[in-house]
Write the structure tokens for this entry.
Amino acid sequence: MKLIRDSLYMTQRHLMALWRQPFWIVFMLVQPVIWLALYGQLFRRVVELPGFHTTSYVSFLMPGVVVTNALFAGGWQGMGIIADLERGIIDRFLLTPVSRPAIIAGRILSLCVGGGVQSLILIGLGFVMGARYGSPWIGLPLLVAASMLMMAAFGALSNAMALMVRKEESVIGASNMLLLPMTFLSPIYMAKALMPEWMQKAAMANPVTWAVESGREALEAAPDWGRVIVRLMTLGAFTVLSLWVATRAFRAYQRSV
Amino acid sequence: MESQAVAAIRAEGLKKTYPGGVKALDGLSFAVAPGTVYALLGPNGAGKSTAVKVLTTLTQADAGEAVVAGLDVRRRGAEVRRMIGCVAQKSGVDANATGRENLRLQGRFYGMRGVELERRIDELLARFRLAEFADKISRTFSGGMQRKLDIAMGLIHRPAVLFLDEPTTGLDPEARSSLWNEISWLAGESGITILLTTHYLEEADKLAGRVGIVDRGRLVAEGTPEGLKSELQGDAVQVEFGEPQKEAAVRAALERVAGIGEIVVESQAVHARAQHGASAAPAILSALDQAGLRAMAVRIARPSLDDVYLHYTGRSFQEADAQLPMAGGKR
């Protein structure tokens, strides 16, 4: 199918560009590594409070850092399409018979591949710092899958916003304003039971919560699969909705050319 | 590929108004015969780029009809896109990919594969003298090289019609004349139809078999460059003043000189047509002098496309170009 073929060509284009600047992957990992190392030390003893289901804060924190990294990787992705718009590359693509959805799909797929590698590196670092789990062989692949859904969803939303505002400054402003509060309105650093009640309610509606809770639950020795599946399905539905928003934004862009 | 059959462009009464009320096309009509080079000539903002966007299916006209390679652009856009190549005003080169990768990706969108595609890429790289840079990241290319890569990308699938939207804008003179050679070669040997837009009079004169002059979204004159110039009788006379002058005074002074017509007064210059330019010059200068108008410079020349533009629009080309920094810039 042309959509799939063209999406893969586009993915290849973005991954080649990534491959040519290997420092990018190091650079992108500096921040999550700092969270893992510093927060991991700073909050080491909070697990002595009830509600964490573990005695190791690094074990609690690692899935949270993987999801946070996915959120940021996705949230900043719109910057790339603005650069392509300014270079005239998107318009050149539109002059060819290329499958239109492939222009967005290629960006999302390459993000999931590049970001997936980052998730694996962060998981490895978590283990080096002492994170341990009851069922890693089922839990870790599901955590990586949840992180990829996060990247796809927020990558799509970020691209949609970039296509609407078409200014780097606006994307930077919006990402700065939204992404950080989203990590605090979720059980990334703190067990949900210990959060103020209004925050717990806000966290329930936060995709970050769905991703991190499904990952943590799947890593338990005896996971409650109902909890895992409901959260992953909700996250999946949110991703589909975000992708739809991105295709609508792209159509609106095409009409405005 | 069965391309040559119906390679032509026909636009009829194209109209387009952008949101915000900028009228880009106001009933533009023209036709291009197969295998020829046609230049749409006009200042920035005249509607040339919008015309190209409509003809290449990137945007839709509000009214009017356009047929490219025998296909209606509105109803059969997908088929039109397979028949055309387009080099937009903005370079579309992916700066983070090599020249070869840019060409390969472009070819794949048209369904080209394997040996056929690689052979075509090598052929184009050689043709545009890019072979030795083929595997370098195109960020390192000069402006002229990027433009050649743009054109090579536009040609990868052997289109029947090629659109070149201001191909040499922003290039240095050397790169420009090198690109002119490439375009002349294309037109001469490959039998492709080329629609070129430009705001360089010289470029239209040099490359195009026919020229359409566009002003405010409409075609105001059309013909071969020679034909357009010969329609104008006599020589072009241009007088420049050191400071702004009153239009009425300038006009009154010149109207007293015999054999002078088509007087167009601008703030610091006046354009006119003289049956015999060389003998009219002293008379013009003395008439101005008597009226107390001090001339800085007088230029007498055989008609150029600039004069054709002036003749049909009542504005000189530079003035029209300078008048248009308004709404949205390049369209």
